[in-house]
Structure formats: structure tokens, C-alpha cells
Amino acid sequence: MKNDLPNIAPDSAEIARTLEDALALQRAAYFAHPVPTLAERKADLRTLQRFIRENKQALCDAISADYGHRSQHETLLAEIFPAMDGISHVIGSLRKWMRPQRRSVDLRNFLGASNRVIPQPLGVVGIIVPWNFPLHLSLIPLTYAFAAGNRAMIKMSENSRHLAAFLIEKIPAYFPADKLRFFDETGGVGIEFSKLTFDHLLFTGSGQTGRSVMAAAAANLVPVTLELGGKAPAILCDDFPLRLAAERILFAKLMNAGQICTTVDHAWVPRAKVDEFVAAAREIINARYPTIASTDYTSVIDDRSFERLVGALEDAKARGATVIQVIPGEPYDRATRKMSPHIVLNAPADSVLLQREIFGPILPIRAYDSLETVIQTINAGARPLAIYPFSNDGRRVQMLLDRVMSGGVSVNEALFHVAQHDLPFGGVGESGMGHYHGREGFDTFSKLRPVFYQARFSALSLIGPPYGKFATTLLGFLTK
């Protein structure tokens, strides 16, 4: 079903005109009504929530069609529920977030004056969405853009053609084009989209594409939030129950067949416990997925990604690594693009699996003798989007938090920091910049506008030029 949609690519000039016209329409609407009320913003959020509720099955079906097969339970758990629940959280918090903040005033200089920080809408927000969680990563940023009072244009991935077609068809019944518009990727759309003079641009995707997006946005000084990826490690310490850690690590690793930017990329395991971890993993995975044909097990998104994963396994074997196929039967099925989960032991440091983000159902196990080795190895690479320490020793966990920088952390769990609506989400270094989710999401899409209100009387009016004895005395007092 992935190839049953037309792929007619208009020329770049036509794409640019379409996008610029859409932006002009939204910007004119913003200038006509720049600060929506609390009631108007809540109404938009409830309409967005109603859209999800009324189209839940169709959204699941469209995403599955784009994947070839996507577990409906995973779509409900990782996309539908977080989007709906996140909207409810934002609606409940919005009055507090919109309230002007009082800030202190230097009373020696400005008796009776006051300071405020007023959050106001930026205008029009652009959102570029990847294919792996296309509903989650479009509607959750949109939730915060709407909460902050903005309008939005959203560019979907070339691997989300069915979902994009559905959104383009259905959204106009819920929102006018001057408030929200979706765009399909038919070739060249992303390039032109990145060049638009948005008031803020949020990109989720690979680091390589993120660099191009940021370079295009920089030409117009458009501020950018980048949510990228990275090789997020799980760190199993010797005091934590091994089977419990394995259950949690593997749940994260195999959801969406490992195609999650915050999933466990690889796991550090004490050398003496590697065999025990592998044995536990076999039991856990086979109980969850008896065959790769299971409807609970998701396909790899496209042929290129599938062949990349097959090549990474072959590279590891050729370099002497031990490659363990976990589910019996054929190791993979090219027709359905389903691949058996694999565990890889002793992969060389320069192998593809340890050099590049895996983004698939392959888990390298890295044996260690000292946590110091783990820390030094992680810190020698790019800062990851997340780390997942497993330990019941609070001092050990804090030591890892202090010494290993990452975008986010789940302690004794994997992924769950992303699911917390009141925690900011974002990378650091090569894993991204900026935050959204929670109050930080509202702030990202707002101008936190400082406003100084002068009092009736100002001491400054008495010390202006020509400066005299009074000015000299007062300034001496103020600066002593």
C-alpha cells in the first residue's frame, strides 16, 4: 500500500509560491487578531482533541499503510493517547501559563515603577515532521503552538503519504487554512518550507537534515528548535535486578521495531552478567513476539532503511561480532520488511552499529568492568538525546547524572521521560537544541515580552544633562 499514492512533484517555483501564499494568509490573520483569548485557545485545543477522537481508527489505518504494517496498539499507546492526554494537560495549565509574570524592580531608581513579562504569540510557526511518530510529532508541537496563540503550517514526511493525504483532506473541516495547514512531501517541499520566514521553526529528524534546515532558516534569522537523535545508552549497574532491567530495556527497544529517536540504542552490561542478560532477553522477546509475523510487531519503514539494517548486521559479523537472532525462523522478511530482533556481542568500536544511530530492532551489548570506562566512552562521542541508568544506588545515579550530559534521562526505565507532559523535552549538542512539552513548550512558541511601567515620578528626570552637583551626589550614592 505504500506506493498507491501519486507522486507528482511540482517545480520548485510552484512549491515556493504555494507555501508563501499559505504563510501570507496566516500572517495576515495573525496581524488581524494577534492575541487570541484564553477561551479561543482552549476552543482550538478542544477542536484538535475532537479531531483525534473522531478519526482515531482512520489515523491508525493511515499510519499502518505508510509503514506496510504498524501495530495498532503501538499507534494508540505512543501517538493517539499522548496527543489527547497532552491536550488535556495543556488546557488545565493554560490560564497559569498565560498570566503575566511580575518581576522585581530596582526600588532605589524607580520608586513606584513595575516590571512584567507578558507571554505573547509569535505569529506563524512551522513544524517539520519525521515519519516514525508522525501524529505524535505533529500534533503535540501543534498543541503548544496553539496554546501560545499561534497559527501553524506543518510539513509531513515523504514516508507519511497516506497520513498526510488524510490530514490534508480532513483538517479543513476543523480548522481554516489561515490557522492550520498540512503539506505533503512530494519532492522539494521540505527545502522550500525551510526557507520560509516563519516566526519559529521546529524540526524533528536526523542530524544531517537538521543542519540543512538550520542553514536555510538562518538566511532569514528564523529561530529554530531542533529535535535530533543520538546513540542513547542504557547503563545497567550491578546492583539492579537484571531481568527487570531487561524487560524495560527491551520494551523500549522493540516498540516500533526500534524506530524511535529516544529508544535504547545499545546497552552497557557488567561483563559477568552478559550471558544472563542474553538468556533473559531470549525469554522476554519470544514471549512477546512468537514470530516476526505478529501483528504486535511493526515493519521497518522502507526498503532503504531495511537494507541499511541488514548491512549493519553483515558488517558486524564480518568484523568478528557475535550476532544472535532472537526469534526463531527466518532472520527477516523482505516482503513485509520485518526483521527478527538481534542481539550483538563484541561489536568493534568502528563497526556501523556502534558508529551510527541504529534505528531498528538490533541491540548491541557492550560489556564493561568499570563504570569509569562507560562514562569515558559515552563522553568521547556526541551527547546523546537520552541516557537510561539502572541502579537503586542514589549516589551512583547522581554521579552518572553529573558526569554524563544528555538531552533527557529516565532512571530505572527507558523512554518514559518523554511521556511526562510537565517535563521539557529536547536534546543537547548534536542531539538537538531547544525544548518543548510542558511550560517550556508554551514558552518556546511565545515571545516572553519584557514590559517596564514607569511611575509618575522618576529619579532619572533629575539627573539628566547638563549634569550638576545633585547628579554627582545621587550617582555617588547609587554606586557606592
Automatic annotation (TrEMBL):
One of its GO terms (cellular component) is cytoplasm. The active site is at E227, C261. Gene3D superfamilies: Aldehyde Dehydrogenase, Chain A, domain 1, Aldehyde Dehydrogenase, Chain A, domain 2. Residues 28-449 form the Aldehyde dehydrogenase domain. GO terms for biological process: aldehyde metabolic process. It comes from the Bacteria. PROSITE patterns: ALDEHYDE_DEHYDR_GLU (PS00687). Belongs to the aldehyde dehydrogenase family. This is Aldehyde dehydrogenase. It comes from Scleromatobacter humisilvae.
